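EI: anyone free to look at a 176-residue chain?
SC: sure, send it
EI:
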Amino acid sequence: MRTKALPLHLSLHEDSKYDQSRAFCNVSTENGFEVMWEDENLVTFRVRDPACEHHFQVIPKEHIPSVRQLRKSNVETLKAMVNVGHQLLEQLAVENTMRKMGFHIPPFNSMGHLHLHVQALPYKNFSKKLKYPIVDGFKPFQKGFSWFVEAHQTISIIQQDRSVGLFPCEEARSRG
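SC: here you go
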């Protein structure tokens, strides 16, 4: 695994105007994150209050507010994020059937920066499991009603120039 040094940022306690909702725009070990992997486009770090034994997040360095703002032009970034998640889970010897990756959908996301949850099941408890429900879709929908969307569902929806939302499907909209 390669890790490049991040530019230094002000520590959380040093910047009185620090916006906690933008914390993921400043991911670094200097800012208290346990960075696991990084390249020029993505950074991965362990979750502070993990839902399962192995729970980390992959985020793009480019600021994308949430899964709702994703466009077709973001598909390669999404695929790269999923690939990094699988590589890290592979290094941890997590079987494919025990892997879960996805995004919370606003207003049920905690941060205003796109972040892929990468998890090695099982969950620590039932309440943790409730935060990450994946609901399969039904033809012609890629997903069911849920505040969490699986990574491959997201990619499929975005590739069709559709929007990710809470409901099974949102109408394709003009992207002007």
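EI: Confidence is low (pLDDT under 50) at residues 1-21, 170-176.
SC: 👍
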